């Protein structure tokens, strides 16, 4: 498992460099073909290609295994952050998020193949190359597969040092607030101007007032850009806003409040663009049923697992709108998108075994 992870991690595959995806996808395709899978390459449009695979000759009711090959690390990161395996840790760009999860998926499927264990639902694999940039190209494929699947297992990394599975994720959206004011000389004619900076300060307070920790609503103005010079009344300012919601019922209200922002000062125009485009992965009844199946499988393996709610999104947010979804079945480790990224090697076989037992769980339908 460590050798395969090193091979995948050393094939750098940043989202924004589509050509880099070919090498690690070829490795993954070879692994899947070796255990009897048919592998199809789905061409990306402005992104790397995506991979879909299923056991040769098997059709019918299926379960979805979901992951991504792309990473946030640009080509050349290996020079400062080489792949190193020592002290029960595998370090390197993308090992935790989420090539370790892909390795565990391969070995779970390999175990079923070598033990002639027949999964009640056909295991269908989908791995995309644009998850880290929003899955805008692959979303159509994810929706298609999720709509027909009886359940989905997401091989994103687990959460925290104990490796908690993710039974809920916040939904997310991005908005841009643009304020058009009117420039004037700040010393000679300040009254002739209309300050976009003054106006955006009002709007920022309105935005932060939407935060509700108890409801799991977070609104953050992350960047502000605008103005010309200290002696000019600012004619234009933009603010970029990140929004997270834990419950679908809150998404519409928060979006409506942001899109409905109106000017406070005279002589300015406020325009808002954006949407809450990624729905939350909620702790629904069908998702909880998968979590309970994971608890039973963990007890059978003699390992302890726990669950977590996290603020980050994944493609599990999409699949959960269509089918039962369990996320965080990937690596135990730390450092997603950070320079200390690592995977705990000794946990990989255990988590692969957990995935294998979940694939053998009878259908709930």
Could you please describe the fold and organization of this structure?
This protein is α/β, with parallel strands linked by helices and 365 residues long. The protein folds into two domains: 2-169 and 281-359, Zn peptidases (Aminopeptidase, 3-Layer(aba) Sandwich); 171-278, 2-Layer Sandwich (Alpha-Beta Plaits). It has helices at 2-10, 22-33, 95-114, 139-148, 196-208, 248-259, 285-301, 316-319, 348-359, and strands at 37-42, 50-55, 62-68, 84-86, 89-91, 122-128, 151-154, 165-169, 171-180, 218-226, 236-245, 269-278, 307-310, 324-326, 333-334, 342-344. The chain has a six-stranded mixed beta sheet with strand order 1-2-6-3-7-14, with helices on both faces. It has a four-stranded antiparallel beta sheet with strand order 4-5-16-15. Strands 10-11-9-12 form a four-stranded antiparallel beta sheet, covered by helices on one side. Helix 1 crosses helix 3 (95-114).
């Amino acid at each position: 498992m460590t050798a395969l992870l090193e091979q995948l991690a050393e094939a750098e595959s940043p989202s924004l460099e589509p050509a880099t995806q070919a090498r690690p996808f070829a490795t993954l395709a070879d692994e899947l073909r070796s255990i009897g899978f048919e592998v199809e390459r789905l061409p990306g449009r402005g992104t790397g290609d995506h991979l879909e695979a299923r056991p040769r000759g098997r059709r019918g009711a299926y379960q979805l295994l979901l992951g991504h090959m792309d990473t946030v690390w640009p080509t050349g990161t290996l020079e400062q952050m080489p792949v190193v395996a020592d002290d029960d840790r595998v370090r390197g760009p993308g090992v935790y998020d989420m090539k370790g999860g892909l390795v565990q998926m391969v070995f779970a499927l390999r175990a079923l193949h070598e033990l002639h264990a027949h999964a009640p639902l056909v295991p269908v694999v989908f791995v995309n190359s644009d998850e880290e940039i929003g899955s805008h190209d692959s979303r159509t494929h994810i929706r298609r597969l999720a709509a027909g699947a009886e359940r989905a297992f997401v091989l994103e990394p687990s959460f925290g040092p104990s490796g908690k599975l993710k039974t809920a994720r916040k939904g997310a959206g991005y908005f841009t607030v643009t304020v058009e004011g009117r420039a004037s000389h700040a010393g000679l004619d300040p009254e002739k101007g209309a300050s976009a900076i003054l106006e955006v300060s009002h709007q920022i307070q309105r935005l932060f007032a939407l935060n509700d920790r108890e409801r799991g609503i977070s609104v953050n103005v992350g960047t502000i850009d605008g103005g010309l010079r200290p002696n000019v009344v600012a004619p234009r300012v933009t603010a970029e806003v990140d929004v997270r919601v834990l419950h679908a019922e809150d998404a519409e209200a928060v979006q409506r409040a942001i899109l409905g922002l109106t000017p406070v000062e005279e002589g300015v125009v406020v325009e808002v663009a954006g949407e809450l485009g990624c729905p939350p992965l909620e702790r629904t009844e069908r998702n909880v049923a998968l979590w309970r199946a994971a608890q039973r499988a963990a007890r059978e393996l003699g390992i302890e697992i726990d669950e977590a709610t996290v603020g980050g999104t994944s493609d599990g947010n999409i699949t959960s709108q269509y089918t039962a979804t369990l996320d965080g079945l990937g690596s135990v480790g730390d450092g997603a998108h950070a320079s200390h990224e690592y995977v705990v090697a000794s946990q990989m076989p255990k988590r692969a075994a957990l995935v294998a037992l979940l694939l053998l769980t009878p259908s709930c339908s």
